[in-house]
Design goal:
Length: 324
């Protein structure tokens, strides 16, 4: 993984390179920003740059023996086989204490091929409580040459004692121009109108924009906005939303729709009446919880889309009440 695969985060990359060139490189970094901004890809590219030494440039983050990535493991052996075959797979809910302890055991030895070692935790938000406690010990007294990159969608979920030991690297939403560059890179055949819709819906998130095009979420996006603008007292618009979702959507499509709903609500907040804002915030928080659970729970797709529609309607209903 190289920085060329990360679009629109030049400022963060320059800050990282400046730190690498300094004599006193901080040992722990917190990559903070909304989900879908490319923090995970950045962390892997940053780790690759960190351990790069002379002729070792052929290594990447997935194969380098001195880059250790802690992420959600497959839920079971069957899901592990799917992952090995490059298929979508269901993952465990958290990054476990056993994963962290395994990483710590490896820290007792020196780096394999160079003088530096990188630990990427993606996302650190999902560490088990006991895993956080185990990690804290490593952060307090890291071995020489060991550097941590913690990806965090919601830094506030981490213990203050973890945050205080990290230098924060913040990730900003991408510009429309950068989002268009991402879409052109990954979906060069996409129509201009579809790219425009995706950029408008994404609220600066390349993850949302790419999923919008990949899963053709135009009908769902329009139904969501109708619910927010009109409410849905007769459940007609929620039926439209369910039809647009489809009878048997893939897990990736469900996750994409959840993230799109969060973006739609986030776009509503700045113009919301003061009495509506709390309802929008509550609905957004509920969608965030659903998004965290969705990768590891087998939700009924029909019930999930109705839940999403209901949360959107709850924000719209208060807006209507506020205007009367």
């Amino acid at each position: 993984m190289t920085f060329s695969s990360v679009v629109g985060q030049d400022a963060a990359w320059q800050e990282w390179l400046k730190a690498l060139a300094s004599e006193r490189m901080h040992h722990a970094w917190l990559l903070a920003g909304s989900k879908g901004l490319g923090k995970g890809a950045f962390a892997r590219a940053a780790a690759t740059e960190l351990v790069r030494e002379g002729a070792l440039e052929q290594w990447d983050s997935e194969s380098h023996p001195d880059i250790h990535i802690l992420e959600h493991l497959p839920a079971n052996e069957d899901e592990a086989k799917k992952k090995a075959d490059g298929k979508p797979y269901q993952s465990k809910r958290n990054i476990s204490v056993d994963q962290v302890r395994g990483m710590i055991r490896r820290l007792s030895t020196k780096p394999t091929v160079g003088s530096r070692r990188a630990i990427v935790i993606d996302p650190a938000d999902d560490l088990e409580k006991s895993a956080v406690n185990a990690l804290l010990k490593a952060l307090e007294e890291p071995p020489s040459g060991t550097f941590f990159l913690l990806v965090a969608h919601q830094p506030g979920r981490l213990l203050p004692t973890v945050r205080s030991r990290c230098r924060v690297l913040r990730f900003a939403p991408l510009s429309a121009e950068s989002l268009n560059a991402v879409l052109l890179r990954d979906f060069p055949e996409a129509e201009v109108s579809l790219r425009g819709e995706a950029i408008a819906a994404a609220q600066g998130s390349p993850g949302v924009a790419l999923a919008y095009v990949q899963h053709d979420l135009g009908k769902i996006y329009r139904a969501m906005n109708l619910i927010l603008s009109e409410g849905d007292p007769e459940f007609r618009l929620r039926g439209m939303l369910a039809d647009a979702m489809g009878a048997r959507p893939s897990r990736d499509r469900q996750l994409a729709v959840l993230e799109l709903a969060r973006a739609v609500l986030a776009a509503t907040l700045p113009s919301a009446a003061s009495r509506q804002q709390s309802a929008v915030i509550e609905a957004h928080a509920a969608l965030t919880r659903l998004s965290a659970q969705a990768p590891t729970y087998n939700f009924d797709s029909g019930l999930l889309i109705l839940e999403i529609g209901g949360l959107l309607a709850s924000a719209a209903a208060l807006r209507e009440a506020a205007h009367h």
